């Protein structure tokens, strides 16, 4: 239930893991460290995390972002990210943690699902080959590694429902990885970063932008897609990522001057 960017005490195994790599782990309500990992953390929210949580909390994306997130630039990519905003209490708790667990458990973020596995595509350094590998995060307070249950990473991903998240977030992850492949001195304009932020995280505002501006005149779309994005957040997210890719990255591998 934790992040791949957190606790300075965390010992991040420098081992690259694949889908068939094995580990021993079990997390349950009777374990002595229960919910310890939901405090003092830093969790990057993916676009699909925000869709699920704003729906669960019956908020618009703008309301969710204002109440529960803090913006940040992803190191080495210069792309805006959003982090879950922690409470201002002594242990910097996640706003959704309660004594009996996670208040939004079935809609919890991707990073919380993966934990104790970390995903290299968001945590690695520029220049690394980041396609499809994972790392194991072992924090001293986490007793789950002392439990007797074996997993492969493939099994863990399926069990935690993270496959679906990764599939829906694939367009966004591609953009992040693609931007990172550019040298740091090649930057997106402020306008481009704002469009990336809106299409990735503020889906309700992006819908208004698409439907209520001159957008459809500049970027015509077929009736089927139009109907799908009018009400479907996942369809709009997929459309937005494809659109962003086409307007931000030109064919000759240059960044657009949007
Ligand atoms: S076992 Fe690890 S993941 Fe589970 S509650 Fe404890 S610290 Fe969190
Ligand atoms: S969202 Fe849920 S699982 Fe994730 S840190 Fe918060 S309480 Fe823990």
How would you summarize this macromolecular structure in one to three sentences?
By secondary structure, the chain is an alpha+beta fold. Helix content is 40%, strand content 13%.
The radius of gyration over CA amounts to 19 Å
Poorly predicted runs are: 2-9, 124-130
How many helices does DSSP assign?
Answer: 12
C-alpha termini separation: 38 Å
User: Reading side by side through the largest sheet, how are the strands ordered?
Assistant: 1-9-8
What does the oligomeric state look like here? single chain
* Total separate domains: 2
Shape: globular
Which molecules are bound besides the chains?
Answer: iron/sulfur cluster
Mean pLDDT: 87
Structural class: alpha+beta
DSSP strand (E) fraction? 5-15%
Note the main sheet: 3 strands, antiparallel
Secondary-structure element order, as H and E? EEEHHEEEEHEHEEHHHHHHHH
Q: What percentage of residues falls in helices of 4 or more residues?
A: 25-40%
């Amino acid at each position: 239930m934790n992040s791949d960017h957190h606790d300075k005490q965390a010992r991040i195994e420098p081992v690259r893991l694949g889908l068939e790599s094995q580990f021993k782990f079990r997390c349950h309500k009777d374990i002595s460290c229960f919910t310890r990992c939901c405090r003092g953390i830093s969790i990057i929210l993916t676009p699909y995390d925000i869709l699920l949580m704003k729906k669960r909390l019956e908020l618009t994306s703008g309301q969710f972002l204002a109440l529960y997130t803090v913006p940040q630039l992803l190191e080495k990519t210069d792309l805006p990210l959003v982090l879950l905003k922690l409470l201002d209490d002594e242990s910097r708790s996640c706003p959704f943690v309660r004594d009996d667990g996670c208040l939004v458990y079935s809609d919890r973020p991707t990073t919380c699902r993966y934990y104790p596995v970390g995903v290299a595509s968001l945590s690695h350094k520029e220049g690394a080959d980041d396609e499809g590998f994972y790392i194991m995060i072992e924090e001293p307070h986490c007793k789950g590694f002392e439990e007797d249950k074996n997993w492969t990473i493939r099994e863990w991903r399926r069990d935690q429902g993270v496959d679906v998240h990764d599939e829906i977030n694939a367009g966004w992850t591609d953009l992040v990885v693609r931007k990172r492949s550019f040298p740091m001195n090649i930057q997106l304009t402020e306008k481009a970063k704002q469009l990336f932020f809106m299409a990735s995280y503020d889906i309700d505002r992006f819908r208004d932008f698409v439907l209520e501006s001159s957008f459809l005149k500049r970027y015509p779309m077929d009736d089927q897609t139009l109907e799908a994005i009018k009400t479907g957040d996942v369809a709009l997210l997929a459309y937005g990522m494809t659109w962003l890719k086409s307007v931000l990255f030109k064919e000759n591998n240059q960044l657009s001057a949007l």
